[in-house]
Amino acid sequence: MELLFLGTGAGVPGKMRNVTSIALKMLNERGTVWLIDCGEATQHQILHTSLKPRRIEKIFITHLHGDHIFGLPGLLGSRSFQGGIEPLTVYGPAGIRAFIETALHVSNTHLQYPLYIEEIEEGTVFEDDGIIVTAGKLDHGIYSLGYRFAEKEKPGELLVDLLREDNIPPGPIYKQIKEGKQVTLTDGRKIDPDKYTSDPQPGKIVTVLGDTRPCDMAVQLSLGADLLVHEATFNAENKKMAHDYYHSTTSQAAGMAMRAGVKSLCLTHISSRYTREDERQLLNEAKELFQPVIIARDFLEVLIN
Amino acid sequence: MELLFLGTGAGVPGKMRNVTSIALKMLNERGTVWLIDCGEATQHQILHTSLKPRRIEKIFITHLHGDHIFGLPGLLGSRSFQGGIEPLTVYGPAGIRAFIETALHVSNTHLQYPLYIEEIEEGTVFEDDGIIVTAGKLDHGIYSLGYRFAEKEKPGELLVDLLREDNIPPGPIYKQIKEGKQVTLTDGRKIDPDKYTSDPQPGKIVTVLGDTRPCDMAVQLSLGADLLVHEATFNAENKKMAHDYYHSTTSQAAGMAMRAGVKSLCLTHISSRYTREDERQLLNEAKELFQPVIIARDFLEVLIN
Ligand SMILES: [Zn+2]
Ligand SMILES: [Zn+2]
Predict the structure, then answer these.
(1) Which long-range contacts (CB under 8 A, 24 or more apart) does A96-99 make?
(2) Span B192-221, pLDDT tens digits
(3) Do B139 and B57 sit in the same domain of this protein?
(4) Overall number of domains in chain B
(5) Tens digits of per-residue pLDDT, A174-198?
(6) Fewer Cβ atoms within 10 Å of its own Cβ: the N or the C terminal residue of chain A?
(7) In this predicted model, what pLDDT tens digit does every residue of A240-260 receive, in sequence order?
(8) Residue A204 in 3-state DSSP?
(9) Tell me, what CATH number does A95's domain have?
(10) pLDDT the model gives residue A108
(11) DSSP character for B32?
(12) Three-state secondary structure call for residue A224
């Protein structure tokens, strides 16, 4: 899994940071890309990457503020115009359907692929053999969700070389051993499956939060995550402003990472009041409480491993 | 009056051309800027110019295709966020109100300025002492308007130096002379007002058409214009495709300019299939029928004089 930051700014686009969108690339794992949020000009940002809009299979919207959704109608239309025919599902809070359907209807946009819109609340949003996506309600001015993307444990691999060394011949019993079943050979030997399989691989966990003040749900969604992506609209000093506008400071984001015991932290949704020169200070404020931490920039890629 | 092209592409944004928007700058004449169309990321384009969103007083939408309107919600919101408090009026075909109001409502956007939305049809759209804006229905797949912006004649100036030379003393009669009234001086002289005023200055006329096939209304809206901005989505060869998709070719646009007797022509809404190298060919196709003609690029400024 990799995260590709398409927009890392707050509120309004700036020259340095576009409004919010993050791509969760799972090309090796699932052959697909998911998006979290889709601010205006997300499709423009994608033009400068190797992403193909037709590979985008799901879009998870954290909340309905304009800087997180105004790029949706254009992206959906262009995906069709550029030959996308695979289904696409948009998940988001109530209201997302009215927004998308009105924009597509008024503009006479006819998609060449099935579009599913799921208005969701807290809980399991999506689950299959490989992954489970859980949403939780954060503390923002409007209904805002955080998403926890938890890959499922990958079962251990069969240690074929070892089996052969011990003169256990191939056959249907290999499958049984892999599934963890005790088997008895024709020569009477009892086989311990654990000996002949590698340890199961734990799945990776990425948590991406929507805009929020510090809150218990932020911690709960992030528990033990390999990577937490947390907003840090303001610097540590502007705690009061962060509270008044339902946002977080650098230090507050780091505090959440600490409480949740995550493995790493990435700060995003940075106010355009902060320059490139201010970034070191923002980073240091977070580092005082939690490490490792980075500040996202547009087009930053983060490998989760 | 100046035109500033903010987006000159067709259908979907490309690296070279953004989707459609044009600024009609009248800073000297009226202290304001008007927009024609507002495709996605128009506010992003504006970041690279000296335009101030708060100076935008009116937005004229030609038609509701996404590449002409999907930048509206973001621009309206950012104009407020950045301190715009002056009223703004959006003119456009029926449906524009539902689009804007749904986007602002769903995203919980509260504008700090009065927003007026006028759903319009053919006819006079706006008129005051300085200008008259007329709309006419073109030939596109959906209801598409062209706009004619016609400045009113500026009355002649009083030739004060000449009046003084002829020993006509300043006073209320200067105003009467300026207004074209015959006056008689106390010494009996009869004053011909035409002799003491400069010729009235004809107003400039700019016509900006929405997407369209060649049609009589395109000619009617453009009659005698100083500048016609006409779409040329396709090259001359792709006449059939232009017809099928309700667009025009370079040659067809030049033909309209010729029939309307305009003073100059600017082609825009160029398909992304054409590269910078193709532009010379596109231009030559138009030149065979009409000159002077140019092809717009993003951020091109055209002075109308
Ligand atoms: Zn935001
Ligand atoms: Zn168009």
Answers:
(1) A96/A61, A96/A64, A96/A69, A96/B106, A98/B102, A98/B106, A99/A64, A99/A69, A99/A72, A99/B102, A99/B103, A99/B106, A99/B107
(2) 989 999 998 899 999 999 999 999 999 999
(3) yes
(4) 2
(5) 988 988 888 888 888 999 989 999 9
(6) C
(7) 999 999 999 999 999 999 999
(8) coil
(9) 3.60.15.10
(10) 97
(11) E
(12) coil
| Contact (Cβ atoms closer than 8 angstroms) between residue B191 and residue B179 | no
Interface ipTM? 0.91
Whether the pLDDT of residue A62 is over 90: the answer is: yes
Q: Give CA–CA dist B235/B279, Å, rounded.
A: 10
- B172 and B39 in one domain? no
Please report the pLDDT score of residue A27 as a whole number.
Answer: 92
Question: A243 among the known binding-site residues?
Answer: no
The residue behind tokens 């973001």 is: B74
Same structural domain, A216 and A186: no
CA distance readout (Å), A249 to A139, A228, A253, B277: 14, 15, 6, 49
Residues A79-127 have pLDDT tens digits of 999 999 999 999 999 999 999 999 999 999 999 999 999 999 999 999 9
- Taking the centre of ligand 1 as the mean of its atom positions, its distance from the CA of residue A115, in whole angstroms, is 25
3-class secondary-structure state, position B7: strand
- State the smallest CA–CA distance between residue A140 and chain B in angstroms: 12
Up-side HSE of residue B96: CA atoms within 13 Å toward CB?
28
Contact at CB, A99 and B99, closer than 8 angstroms: no
Which pTM does this prediction carry? 0.92
Q: Whole-angstrom Cα distance, residue B35 to residue B27?
A: 13
Distance CA A300, CA B303 (A): 41
Q: At what angle do helices B72-81 and B96-106 cross, to 10 degrees?
A: 50
Shared domain check, A178 and A34: no
Considering the domain architecture, whether residues A178 and A43 belong to the same structural domain is answered as: no
Query: Which residue in A102, A117, A142, A144 has the most chain B C-beta atoms within 10 A of its own C-beta, making it the best mutation to test that interface?
Result: A102
Average pLDDT value for chain B: 96
Same domain? B277 vs B261: yes
DSSP conformation class of B272: T
Please indicate, yes or no, whether residues A205 and A192 belong to a single structural domain of this protein: no
Cβ-in-10-Å burial (0-12, 13-18, 19+) of A116 comes to exposed
Note the Cα B169 to chain centre separation in Å: 43
Chain A residue with the nearest C-alpha to that of B76: A66
Ligand nearest to the CA of B210: 2
The tens digit of pLDDT for each residue in B232-277 reads 999 999 999 999 999 999 999 999 999 999 999 999 999 999 999 9
Residue A164: how many CB atoms within 10 A of its CB? 11
SS3 A77: helix
**For residue A168, what are the domain limits?**
160-196
For B222, phi then psi, to 5°, come to -100, -5
